[in-house]
Amino acid sequence: MEYINAKNVLPKEILSAIQTYYQGGYLYIPRQNPPKPSKPTDYQLELQTRNQWIYLKHLEGRTNRQLAKIYHLSDPSIRRIIAKEKVKYQKMKEIIRQILPFWGISSRQLRQIYPSAWEINNAYVIKVYDDKNELERNCKLAQILLDCGVPAAETILTETGSSYAAHQGAYFLLSKKLRGSNLSARKDQETAYKMGAAIAKLHRAFVRCEKELEFWDNSLLKEMQGWVREILEEHAWQAVDRQAYEKAAGELAAVYDDLPKQLIHRDVHYGNFLFYEGELSGYIDFDLSQRNIRIFDLCYFLAGLLSEETDDCFTKKEWLENVGAVVAGYESIVPLSKKEKKAVPCVMECIEMLCAAYFIRIHDTKHAEDACHALLFLKNCESDLFSVI
To answer: Which residue intervals of 213-364 are DSSP H helices?
Structure first.
């Protein structure tokens, strides 16, 4: 260590003060520890989550006016939030421009369509992964679905023949853009019937995928009895009434062993099913695909319709009509067992409890409350559900 004469670096008044305590020797002055970064408060975390949701819904096509109404903000506030969130992705956008030559293409038009996906020249979609294994699994899954005649995105190989490109610790998968577009929640029973049939066709193809690929074997029941219960207990059952939890979880446990399990999509909503001229044209986003009870996908989709946040949200009558149409569409391809039909109400309620617990865990109060409102609606619809399924 190099020693420095204190009079060369310290002001006279400070040196004089030190000399009253110590002089004529070597004095080590330790380096000051930098202040520890303060952890964000729960409120700050909630704002971060809210802003991410606003940006996601913006990418899905919601107008600033709709977002302002949903989140009780002004139009200028929504614009500021979107602009701020967009900056976070600017670096990734530039990286994508740099790596497109791996496929021998250039970006005349690059448009973000999802936090991890961009549309290129209206002809391709490039998706960014942190996990190479997840990318490779999804790539193989899409190919199996294509071999089964199911419309999924076709992977474009790089000029060196690889199915993906790696750059700066991320992995990039390029695929052909499927024609058509996703839909916002629709009330007409014809579209609901087509969605039910589309889910069933995907399930039928998934049976083959299970034989050729390994997937996470999950259990809604174990989730309910595990982390969902723990989070609801930690919050003193304020979000979900304990008696309601015990009833739904108990009903699910009573029939769970008899419910068919298979590979499911796990994130079924209109945004992940593409339609062109009124007909299904493609399936997207298999990141959450797993083995679970088969009716999870149907129940998740139908319960999700209750979270529609536009002025044109479903009435009870309209929703029940859609439930009947979706189930009829599904059964036109794959029949449901009596026990599956009987389990639909409690599975829907468990899914909403799971959603409430998840949103509580990530400090998203709004969506946790939305899940609780949907749960209350479902509890009041049990007998009506049995009559339309």
So the answer is: 220-223, 229-234, 242-255, 295-304, 316-331, 338-361
Beta carbons within 8 Å of 389's beta carbon, 6+ residues apart: 323, 324, 327, 341, 344
Length of the chain: 389
Rounded to the nearest 10°, the torsion over CA 181, 179, 281, 162 is: -120
What DSSP character marks residue 108? S
Token pair, residue 281, equals: 């044209």
Collapsing DSSP to helix, strand or coil, 293 comes out as strand
> 186 falls in which pLDDT band (50, 70, 90)?
confident
Q: Mean pLDDT across the stretch 177-186? A: 80
- Best CA proximity match to 207, nearest among 252, 279, 168, 262: 262
The b-or-e profile of 144-161 (16+ CB within 10 A means b, else e) is bbeebebbbbebbebeee
Residue type, position 135, single letter: L
DSSP 330-354: HHTTSPPPHHHHHHHHHHHHHHHHH
CA gap 184, 380 in Å, rounded: 26
Structure tokens of 213?
A: 């690929």
CA distance 343 to 326: 16
For residue 68, give the H/E element and its range: helix 64-71
Which of 16-20, 48-52, 172-176 is predicted with the least confidence, judged by mean pLDDT? Answer: 16-20
